[in-house]
Amino acid sequence: MPFFAYTLLFLFLPAASVLIGAFQKDTSGYTLDNVRALFHHPYIDAYWGSVKLSLVTAALGGVVGLFIAYAALREGTPKWIRGALTTFSGVAANFGGIPLAFAFIATLGPLGVLTVFLKNQLHLDIAAHGFSLFSMTGIGLAYLYFQLPLMILVIAPAIDGVRKEWREASANLGASQLQFWRYVGVPVLMPSILGAIILLFGNAFAAYATAYGINSGANLITIFIGSYYSGNVLNNPHLAQAMAFGMFIVLGLMMLIYIPLQRRAARWAK
Amino acid sequence: MAYLELQNLQREFAGGVRALDGIEVQLGQGEFLSLLGPSGCGKTTALRLVAGFDRPDEGRIVIDGKDITNVAPSKRDMGMVFQAYSLFPNMTAAQNVEFGLKIRRKGKGERSGRVGELLELVGLGHAGDRYPHQLSGGMQQRVALARALAIEPRVLLLDEPLSALDAKVRVQLREEIRRIQLELGITTLYVTHDQEEALAISDHVAVMYRGRIEQIGPPAEMYSRPATPFVAEFIGTMNRLEATVSDPTSGTVEHGGVTLTVDAARGRTKGDRILVLIRPETVELAPENGSNPANTLSGEVIAQTFLGPVTRLKVVGPGADLIADVSTAKAATLPIGMKVTAALPVTDARVLELSDEGFEIAEEPGQAGR
Ligand SMILES: Nc1ncnc2c1ncn2[C@@H]1O[C@H](COP(=O)(O)OP(=O)(O)OP(=O)(O)O)[C@@H](O)[C@H]1O
Ligand SMILES: [Mg+2]
Question: What ipTM is given for this predicted complex?
Answer without folding.
Answer: 0.81
